[in-house]
Design a protein that fits this description.
The complex is a heterodimer of chains A (750) and B (150). Chain A is mainly beta. Chain A has a 26-stranded antiparallel β-barrel. In chain A, strands 7-8-11-12-10-9 form a six-stranded antiparallel barrel. The two termini of chain A are 50 Å apart. Chain B is elongated and about 60 Å long. In chain B, 27% of the residues lie in helices and 39% in strands. Chain B is α/β, with parallel strands linked by helices. Classes of the chains: A mainly beta (750), B alpha/beta (150). Chains A and B meet through helix 2, strand 33, strand 34, strand 36 and strand 48 of A and strand 1, strand 4, strand 5, strand 6 and helix 2 of B.
Chain lengths: 750, 150
């Protein structure tokens, strides 16, 4: 039985009523009893009895009234609602919100209009119906759907019946859009700052501007005020950070940090960028941060640039320098400032050849080291002689010319000089394929040999300064480049051939790279003479590189690389990484990294140890105060100690609702824990508890430890100190267990 | 042993539209060059293409790989993650959303920060070329999947 009721009122939405019994009288009163349903656009109202006045659009429902709209429901014994103005009330409402699985009840719901509601003496939780582990109670809750804001008065949160938070007034956004208000407070304790509390306050100044004020109270140091101002416009965007701790109680100084990031579109292919960072003192981050990625910062970038890109050429002009944060126990050389650096790159195709031009002008300045200006112009041409999907041969010729004008601090009297060198390279390769079946799966197996020859004549460059250059480590990327150095101060002489073979196993069905095996070796036909660490044995004359990596199946992936030096008969470095991630929330990572000591000069003749020295926990014999090591019957000085580290991390469910999470990063050379994380997570349907301890190295001989305790009431609030950034960084593949599945299909559960 | 020289790759479609937040990014530019070399027509609008390739994210990251005992970074890892998805005019999926991830490790030394900047640039370039190869390989294996039952 279904009776259409005349379309009416401002909304023009037809109203349908159906029920077991429908009666209407002459005054347009309609009474529906027994499974009565009223339908209006996306709203459904059910009740035992519905009384509807078509004239006034007044609706009166009694007995098990349920209002449903887009999956969210509200039920109660009695509803009065005007379908035109949407004003009315519901007694003893019980509601369920589909957006965040939240539910609750109250004494009375006042409905002002479609956008505004007030709930008296309400409760709210995201817990399932059968358990109310936490509950927010409030004397009143005002909901403004127009402004997407909720305001609760006299609100307190009970966890397991114990009140844990109280606020006389709190507002919160109804959607993810940011809205002014207090963010979750952060409570914690660190060895360097003592007990601390941060209460961030978020101010939405306009849709395009916001400000976050974060007062942070540290028991040992005082009160720091953090300010972050962000702005976003079609033509520009950026953020400004200013953190101030006036009168640090430990150092008796003012401590500040300033940061400015700005991106600007200038039109016509031009853009501008500023990235400026400054802190008040060397120990700022080590004292005041508990994030390893921040405490490890040595050089803070201060940079402004204008770039042009588009078409066949691009250019960048920048001024750049760094603030170097020194550790008194391990000072580091300050880098050069580039005031300014201008570079131009252009590429054009003509008659089957690729013409390119690289040009750069830099004025290098330094407070103590020699200053100077450098100009580089390097035109090149490459000609693909053969180019098919199966093989290719490409010769390339570059004329590299550099000139220097030396400036102040020229204590060693380096002359103004210039250098012109031709660089010739010949790149060639082929790709073979076959179909293969392995473990019941079809693969396309490739075999890709490549030969790369480079010839650069020798020129003595000892009288040239070193502003921005360093010996390039031997790697699969570097072995196919012309220069053995990064930066333009040195062009390595070369008469060398690099041979490499790559073999891939690609899934026949999807083309995914399941396994990649690589081997490469460089053969020097004459010994290279240009070196930055002179004389040296690490000119990567003919080292062999081996690598294997792959995703064997959905759960297991690995990555490994090894470099071997036949000349020294030793392994230069190797690393192994394996990850087992059968499903989200279950991950184990295992990694080991080994880097051998880097060697300095060959010590000629017989050597008798005159003493010993400890570098990073390793005892070396010394000769004339220089530590040395013996390889293949020769003695070499030790420039710096290597690396031997294990890194194990994981997240794994224990029994019940407990999950373990941890990381152990240990250095065998130093016999020291570099970073350790131990934590437990307890997962309940509507809340999570995280207990995490962290200890890590900051600066020489310093360790920072912190304890994180966090209670997260799902979709409401996080209380305590937040370990999530730490866990995501130290446990690759970590999954926040109570995170809602991403809306994008396929983006989750890999 | 069954190996033969790679022949002309046949792509399963003739024209493609690349949908990306920043269509002028170096990745998209390199991908275009590669596809043009594979005789794929690149259309100016999504409506005119056989298949639309959506680059949903294009994220370079730099993460600490190992720390020294002095609290300084001794190795960094550069990561490059690109999420792709391909579909046709009937909204059939040709490539379901998937994330391709590449990484490169390198030794770090704050005393050589300017040279390390040049090294990072080179590593990103190499990852970008590798990424383009992987995307093209995925595209060459793409095929329409049946629409899910409504």
């Amino acid at each position: 039985l279904r009776a259409p009721v005349a379309a009416e009122s401002e909304s023009e939405e037809p109203v349908f009523v159906e029920a077991d019994n429908l009666t209407g009288d002459k005054k347009n009163q309609m009474e529906a009893t027994g499974n009565a349903i009223l339908l209006k656009s996306d709203q459904t109202i059910r009740a035992d009895r519905l009384l509807y006045d078509q004239e006034t659009a007044d609706l009166d429902g009694t007995g098990s009234v349920v209002v449903e709209q887009r999956g969210s429901t509200m039920s109660g014994p009695h509803l009065e609602l005007n379908l035109d103005t949407h004003a009315g009330f519901m007694e003893k409402p019980v509601f369920f919100l589909k957006e965040n699985d939240g539910r609750g009840k109250g004494d009375m719901l006042h409905i002002q209009d479609q956008q505004h509601y007030t709930l008296d003496n309400g409760t709210y939780t995201t817990c399932p119906a059968d358990r109310e582990d936490w509950l927010m109670k409030m004397s009143s809750l005002e909901i403004d759907r127009e402004a997407q804001v909720g305001v609760a008065r006299h609100a307190w949160v009970e966890f397991k019946g114990v009140p844990i938070l109280y606020s006389p007034w709190m507002d919160f956004p109804l959607n993810n859009r940011n809205k002014s208000g207090f963010l979750s407070p952060v409570i914690g304790s660190t060895t360097k700052g003592g007990a601390e509390l941060t209460v961030p306050y978020y101010l939405s100044l306009a849709p395009n501007y916001d400000l976050t004020l974060s007062p942070r109270i540290m028991s040992k140091r005082g009160v720091m005020l953090g300010n972050q101002f962000r702005y976003l416009q079609p033509q520009y965007r950026g953020e400004v950070n200013l953190d101030v701790l006036p009168g640090d109680a430990i150092t008796q100084t003012n401590r500040t940090r300033f940061g400015l990031k700005h991106d600007q579109a200038l039109g016509g292919g031009f853009s501008g960028q500023i990235n400026f960072n400054r802190v008040s003192d060397n120990a700022y981050y080590r004292d005041l941060s508990s994030e390893m990625s921040v405490t490890s910062k040595i050089n803070l970038l201060q940079d402004a640039s204008v770039s042009y890109g588009g078409g066949w050429w691009s250019s960048t002009a920048r001024v750049q320098r760094y603030q170097t944060l020194q550790d008194p126990l391990a000072p580091v050389g300050e880098p050069y400032a580039r005031l300014p650096q201008v570079n131009v790159n252009a590429a054009q195709k003509y008659a089957g050849a690729n013409f390119a031009l690289m040009g750069e002008y830099v004025s290098f300045t330094h407070t103590t080291a020699v200053n100077g200006q450098r100009m580089v112009v390097a035109p090149s041409v490459s000609v693909p002689l053969l180019r098919t999907p199966g093989y290719y041969v490409t010769p390339k010729f570059t004329l590299h010319s550099t000139s220097y004008a030396m400036g102040s601090n020229n204590t060693t009297l380096l002359p103004d000089a210039s250098r012109v060198l031709p660089l010739f390279s010949l790149d060639s390769g082929a790709v073979f394929e076959r179909d293969i079946n392995l473990f019941g799966k079809g693969y396309l197996n490739t075999l890709e040999p490549r030969a790369y020859y480079v010839f650069v004549p020798y020129q003595n460059q000892d009288k040239l300064p070193v502003f921005d250059s360093a010996q390039a480590p031997f790697s699969f990327v570097q072995m196919f480049t012309e220069n053995r150095f990064f930066g333009n101060d040195r062009i390595g002489d070369a008469n060398q051939l690099t041979l490499a073979v790559v073999s891939r196993f690609l899934g026949q069905d999807d083309g995914a790279e399941n396994l990649k095996l690589t081997v490469g070796e460089r053969f020097s036909l004459s010994a290279p003479q240009v070196n930055l660490v002179a004389p040296t044995t690490t000119t990567n004359k003919s080292d062999i590189l081996l690598a294997a990596s792959g995703r064997l199946n959905a759960a297991l992936s690995f990555d490994t690389e090894l470099q071997y030096s036949p000349a020294l008969a030793r392994i230069q470095h190797y690393n192994v990484m394996a990850r087992y991630r059968p499903e989200a929330g279950k991950v184990l990572n295992l990694g080991y990294r080994f880097v051998s000591d880097s060697l300095g000069a060959l010590i000629p003749g017989a050597v008798t140890a005159t003493g010993s020295m400890v570098i990073n926990g390793v005892v070396y014999p010394t000769f004339g105060g220089v530590p040395y090591t013996t390889l293949g019957g020769n003695n070499y000085s030790v420039a710096s100690a290597g690396l031997r580290q294990i890194n194990v991390s994981g997240q794994w469910p224990l029994s019940g609702r407990w999950h373990a999470v941890g990381q152990w990063n240990y250095s065998y050379l130093d016999q020291r824990l570099l970073s350790g994380v131990a934590g437990l997570e307890y997962e309940q349907s509507c809340w999570m508890l995280r207990l995490v301890a962290h200890s890590f190295t900051v600066g020489t001989q310093q360790t920072s430890t912190g304890i994180f305790v966090q209670l997260e009431l799902n979709e409401l609030v996080k209380v305590g100190s937040d370990p999530l950034v730490l866990l995501k960084q130290s446990v690759p593949g970590y999954k926040k267990l109570n995170e809602k599945p991403a809306s994008q299909p396929g983006a989750v559960l890999r | 042993c069954g190996f033969h020289l790679r022949g002309e790759a046949t792509m399963p479609f003739a024209s493609l539209y690349i949908e990306a937040a920043n269509p002028a990014s170096p990745l998209i530019e390199e991908l275009r060059q590669n596809l043009l070399a594979n005789h794929i027509e690149l259309t100016k609008s999504a409506g005119k293409a056989d298949v639309v390739l959506n680059i949903t994210s294009d994220i370079p990251e730099k993460q600490i790989l190992t720390m020294g005992s002095n609290g300084r970074v001794s190795e960094f890892q550069l990561r490059y993650r690109v999420s792709i998805r391909a579909y046709d005019q009937e909204q059939r999926e040709w490539l379901p959303t998937d994330e391709l991830m590449l990484s490169r490790d390198y030794k770090y030394d704050d005393a050589q920060i300017l040279a390390k900047e040049a090294e990072e640039t080179l590593l990103y370039q190499s990852m970008r070329s590798d990424m383009v190869q992987q995307i093209v390989r995925r595209l060459s294996h793409a095929k329409p999947r049946a629409l899910p039952e409504k």
